[in-house]
Design brief:
The complex is a heterodimer of chains A (about 325) and B (about 325). With about 325 residues, chain A is an all-alpha fold. Chain A has 15 helices and two strands. In chain B, strands 1-4 form a two-stranded antiparallel ribbon. Chain B is globular. Classes of the chains: A mainly alpha (about 325), B mainly alpha (about 325). The interface between A and B is large, with 45 and 44 residues. Chain B: GO terms for molecular function: transmembrane transporter activity.
């Protein structure tokens, strides 16, 4: 099994150019035209702001590797962020808030997986449906209002440091390490490669592809729960539209990072670089005073270009 | 293996027998909902409310009818809502600047059509899967619209222009006449023209369609362009009905349009469905949302219910197709 994992791991040398070139070009561009971009304060700001996206993009990589997609992630993140806010407000406990967020996120993840694996509904429509459901629930639980006055213990997560490193970055790095270990060094990771590449083989090996798929989507939902905690901490409140559209940045990061939408192979480090690329793009455009609408549009263009190149590679 | 047999068995067009039965079931469902609502709410059967339902359903139908053609080719257009918003804002600006509604209408339709064409190019020439290409387009359009409007609201259009969305003719709202016209054109186009039949064939089996000489790429371009143009038309109706345009008007339009298509019996896997079914789908969805409104359920519940309906519709479609085999 270990050998299969090694074989399945893509040759990074083939990939590094794509996403690394994008990142270097973006950094060079904004160093030249955006005043203050290349300062330590700004760059660490980029990294801290990328942490929530990291939490979504890593599981999104796994989901896309199974030839799936999760359009509901942003809406589920919004809902879990509200759950964290509401529960921590009621109980004064950050941990209970996180627990609630995790539970709700994982429930949505399991529901997504169930719709995709058991009912066989195409992932983009199944998760579009749950997107609507999560968005609706967010409006219902919050009554369309912000949830304010949450305990300091939640807010402090975003601003605290551990050995001089901001806690969100520590969380993102731990998450990355966990996903790296999971994908490249466990059987489960090998199975994920097989889910995208060769589902029949899993069945012949006596495994249940359906259960594995549900697990992959459940991981995505649970991560949206943890990201919900960070979102609430960052905004010091829960807001019914806080995370809408974040799944798009996550998909962008995965696409730019070189994970293929058609061949079932993923590259987590590429996704991480993709996350930073999206973060740099947004931050740089922000520094040259372009509104967030232009940032959204440029991320859209980035995705389309990345997918076009991915299509070219898969045909080559 | 299963995929191949499925494609051979599934007839590309079966609108006389199976589709007719499917549409009949859906009409029955719509009537049932009407009966339930008539019992539950006193105001449901009032003329004002019924006209309101029809007008609302026609707005959903305009977007959903173009989308139906896309779904018939086994594609999806997630950008329709954002397209409506951009087209409405651009058409509104043109009317304000030139004072000519005709010019504004043309610009709105053209804007929608160009966006649709770009979607088609991404799907055919760049070979990006349609749901992800149009999802990217959604955010590009969203960004463009917000940037273009910069938080402004366009307000106040000529009275003649406002008649399109809010006027009446012989007691019926004008959008309802437009609905009948486009329902007729759409049905004729899909069922009675060669291009329409080719669209069914592409959805049922793209490889067979290509091998039998259908210009698949050109038909797909047409389908996405039509979907975009219908979004452009919807934007004109919206603009004239709301008498204002804002960057965020499209955000709650895509999911209901997809829901209408799927409730109407058009299969996500392509090749099966009718424009008339989509009309019934739009009607059913509007009835449900209208009923919730009448029973004073908060509008916050609408996305949740629409999401559940989308999933239920796909699931039912898959179940009936499995049984048909």
């Amino acid at each position: 099994m270990r050998e299969a994992a090694v074989v399945a791991e893509p040759n990074p040398l083939q990939r590094i150019p794509g996403v690394a070139i994008v990142l270097v070009l973006l950094i060079a561009l904004f160093s030249a035209i955006a005043p203050g971009f290349l300062s330590v304060a700004n760059l660490s700001n980029v990294l801290v702001q990328s942490t929530i996206l990291t939490m979504l993009a890593l599981p999104m990589t796994l989901i896309i590797m199974t030839e799936g997609l999760d359009l509901s992630m942003g809406a589920v993140l919004t809902l879990t962020s509200l759950c964290v806010a509401i529960v921590s407000l009621a109980t004064k406990s950050m941990l209970l808030g996180l627990g609630a967020g995790l539970l709700v996120g994982a429930a949505f993840g399991v529901a997504n997986g169930w719709l995709v694996a058991i009912l066989g509904i195409p992932p983009f429509v199944a998760t579009l449906g749950t997107l609507g459901m999560a968005q609706g629930l967010s409006l219902i639980v919050s009554d369309g209002q912000s949830v304010v006055g949450i305990p300091h213990s939640v807010r402090d997560i975003y601003s605290a440091t551990l050995l001089g490193i901001p806690v969100p970055i520590v969380m993102a790095l731990v998450t990355y390490a966990a996903f790296h270990g999971l994908l490249y060094h466990t059987r489960f990771g090998t199975y994920i490669f097989a889910l995208g590449g060769n589902r029949e083989a899993l069945r012949y090996a006596g495994l249940s592809p359906n259960r594995l798929l549900i697990a992959v989507y459940a991981i995505g939902g649970a991560m949206a729960g943890i990201a919900g905690l960070l979102m609430t901490a960052r905004m010091n409140s829960g807001h019914p539209t806080a995370g809408l559209g974040l799944e798009f940045d996550a998909i962008a990061a995965v696409a730019v990072g070189g994970t293929s939408f058609e061949r079932g192979n993923g590259w987590l480090l590429g996704t991480l670089l993709g996350v930073v690329s999206v973060g740099v793009l947004r931050n740089g455009l922000n520094l040259i005073s372009l509104p967030s609408s232009v940032q959204v549009a440029s991320v859209g263009v980035l995705v389309i270009v990345a997918l076009f190149l991915d299509g070219l590679r898969s045909r080559a | 293996m299963t995929d191949i047999t499925k494609e051979v068995i599934a007839p590309p067009r079966s609108f006389l027998s199976q589709d007719a039965i499917q549409v009949f079931y859906r009409l029955l469902a719509a009537l049932l909902i009407c009966a339930v609502l008539a019992v539950l709410s006193d105001s449901f059967l009032s003329l004002g409310n019924i006209l309101n339902v029809l007008r609302q359903a026609s707005l959903t139908f305009f977007i959903a009818s173009g989308l139906t053609l896309v779904v018939l080719t086994a594609g999806l257009d997630l950008s329709v809502g954002a397209n409506v918003a951009l087209s409405a804002c651009i058409a509104g600006t043109v009317i304000h600047k030139t004072g000519s509604p005709a010019l504004g209408i043309l610009t709105g339709l053209a804007c929608g059509g160009i966006v649709g064409l770009l979607n088609g190019i991404m799907v055919t020439a760049l070979r990006i899967p349609s749901f992800i290409a149009t999802y990217g387009m959604l955010w590009v359009l969203n960004g463009l619209t917000y940037w273009y409007m910069a938080g402004e609201t366009l307000h106040g259009f000529p009275a003649g222009f406002r008649q399109i969305g809010s006027g009446y003719l012989f007691g019926l709202p004008i959008p309802v006449y437009l609905l009948l016209v486009f329902l007729g054109i759409g049905t004729l186009f899909a069922q009675r023209t060669i291009w329409g039949q080719e669209i069914y064939a592409i959805g049922a089996n793209p490889v067979a369609a290509r091998l039998s000489g259908i210009p698949v790429a050109r038909r797909l371009l047409l389908v996405y362009a039509v979907s975009g143009t219908m979004a452009g038309l919807a934007s004109i109706i919206f603009l004239s009905r709301l008498n204002s345009a804002e960057a965020d008007i499209g955000e709650s339009l895509t999911l209901p349009a997809i829901a209408a298509v799927l409730i109407g019996g058009t299969s996500l896997f392509g090749g099966v469905g009718t424009v008339f079914g989509t009309f019934i789908g739009a009607l059913i969805l509007t009835l449900v949302l209208n009923g919730m409104n009448l029973l004073s359920v908060s509008a916050n519940w609408q996305p949740l219910v629409t999401g559940i309906i989308v999933i239920l519709a796909v699931w039912l479609d898959m179940k009936t197709r499995r049984r048909a085999q």
